[in-house]
Amino acid sequence: MQAEHVLENQPVLETERLLLRKVTASNAADMYAYGSDPAVSEFVTWPAHQSMEDTRQFLDIILDLYESNKAVFWGIELKEEKKLIGTINYVSWQQNHHVGEIGYVLARPYWARGIMSEAAKEVIRFGFEQMELERIEAKCLIDNEGSARVMQKAGMQYEGTFRKKIYIKGQQHDVKQYAIVKEDLLGD
Length: 188
What we know:
Elements: H1 3-8, E1 13-14, E2 18-21, H2 28-35, H3 38-41, H4 52-67, E3 73-78, E4 83-94, E5 99-106, H5 115-130, E6 135-141, H6 145-153, E7 157-168, E8 171-181, H7 182-186
Parallel strand pairs: 5-6
Antiparallel strand pairs: 1-2, 2-3, 3-4, 4-5, 6-8, 7-8
């Protein structure tokens, strides 16, 4: 599938429990509920949202990226509750190298229920089948064991720890790198 087609026609993805779909301005309250939780933002690059305005500004960025066909970004909706509980996206997509990197965040009440692993597996499948990726990566701060488990459950393999790889919230951090390649999931 051509990159332009993926970006212009990002589909809704469905799993047993989840709908992965574009976020909308109407998701601001749900997003603020988890975006303002210090436990949720502890291991991510952004600070906890201090106000609904922080959330609206973030949503405006995503909506602008959708409009300009520059985002592969899904809201995670739990079917039974019909509300946004997190997001998952391709934070980078190196089309010339057929490599993508995923990132994700989930509201704390839904941690340790297999929800993010379920979402990650579907986004990985989509990346290999529709985005023509050969390799999908993800990383986490070394103390983020929950995220490391998500990557492992999604079929990714640990590739190493990179010392002082990223600078966030006033300090350098070591990160764990995980990846999966197409033949791991789909065979040759």
